[in-house]
Amino acid sequence: MFNGEKINATEGRAVLHVATRAKRDQKIIVDGKDVVPDVWEVLDKIKDFSDKVRSGEWRGVTGKPIKNVVAVGIGGSFLGPLFVHTALRTELTAGAAAETRRLRFLANVDPIDVARALDQLDREETMVVIISKTFTTAETMLNARTLRTWLTKKLGEGAVAKHMVAVSTNVELVKAFGIDPQNIFGFWDWVGGRYSVCSAVGMLPLSLQYGFDIMEQFLLGANDIDNHFATAPFDSNLPVILGLLSVWNVSFLGYPCRAILPYCQALSKLAPHIQQVSMESNGKGVDINGKNLPFDSGEMDFGEPGTNGQHSFYQLIHQGRVVPCDFIGIVRSQQSVYLKGEIVSNHDELMCNFFAQADALAYGKSAVELRAESVPDHLIPHRSFTGNRPSLSIMLPELSAYQVGQILSLYEHRVAVQGFIWGLNSFDQWGVELGKVLASKVRQKMHETRTDNRKINSADAFNLSTQTMINRYLEGKDVMKYPEPRDVFPGDLLKPKE
Ligand SMILES: O=P(O)(O)OC[C@H]1O[C@H](O)[C@H](O)[C@@H](O)[C@@H]1O
Question: Is 347 a catalytic residue?
Answer without folding.
Answer: no
